[in-house]
Design a protein that fits this description.
There is one protein chain. With about 240 residues, this protein is mainly alpha-helical. Helix content is about 50%, strand content about 5%. It has 10 helices and 2 strands, in the order ααααααααααββ. Strands 1-2 form a two-stranded antiparallel ribbon. α1 crosses α2.
Length: about 240
């Protein structure tokens, strides 16, 4: 399961097993994942998106805002990328969209948001009560607990509620926190993503050209000297 450890490349995996971040993917679940991996990936697309992100995720320490996206542009058509602008849901329903969005979030040092959201999606597909408890503790240790490796930004009351809920976890125990992170990404991160170089390079578009203020009775001229409709006053 070396791929899974890519999520935390800066951790010391020789640390005692009692440390919470070491138990993010415990050995007890390893064999089950290997046996059922292929069938589960086929059954649920979100499993594929989650695995893809884990494989390509980096840490805060290893990512610089100046780094370019690693998505293979040739593998994503402009038409596909343009569909992501239809809605945030459309973006999350596409595995390439999730991966590209995660790359953008890494440039803003906030990739923990999409990683937590995907971890919750995976958590809600868990059928075994034993695994449910194990995964709940793992998610709490990595994303929820104060000063955890990838702590998300949620309010204190939500954090405390989760802490109590994971003693006897249900499939919905992370729903409130997941909803808050979803709303944050949709309202704050998603609009910036659509204006980013990472996204615009895939759609083969450039940022809008700024308009130059020039007197004209019928037109406003942009920087290329091309006329656009406008009023006859100074604009």
């Amino acid at each position: 399961m070396e791929t899974l450890f890519v999520l935390f490349p800066h951790f010391n995996f020789s640390a005692p097993e009692k440390e919470p971040y070491f138990n993010m993917f415990d050995p007890a679940d390893d064999n089950a994942l290997m046996r059922d991996g292929n069938s589960r990936l086929k059954e649920k697309d979100r499993k594929s998106r989650f695995s893809l992100l884990l494989a390509k995720s980096g840490s805060h320490e290893n990512v610089s805002p100046e780094k370019k996206a690693t998505t293979k542009v040739n593998s994503i058509s402009p038409d596909t990328a343009l569909k992501w602008s239809d809605s945030f849901e459309e973006l999350l329903n596409d595995s390439d969209g999730v991966n590209t969005f995660a790359q953008f979030l890494r440039t803003e040092f906030s990739e923990e948001n999409i990683e937590f959201w995907l971890a919750c999606e995976d958590f809600k597909t868990t059928e075994s009560n034993t695994k449910l408890l194990s995964k709940a503790k793992q998610i709490y240790a990595v994303f929820i607990e104060n000063e955890s490796p990838k702590e998300i930004n949620i309010d204190h009351s939500t954090r405390v509620a989760i802490q109590k809920a994971i003693a006897k976890p249900t499939l919905t125990c992370f729903d409130v926190a997941q909803g808050k992170i979803y709303a944050l990404m949709k309202k704050d991160c998603y609009p910036r993503f659509l204006k980013s170089d990472i996204y615009l390079s895939l759609t083969r578009r450039k940022a809008p050209v700024a308009m130059t203020r020039r007197r004209s009775r019928s037109f406003v001229f942009n920087e290329r000297g091309e006329p656009t409709s406008g009023s006859g006053s100074w604009l």
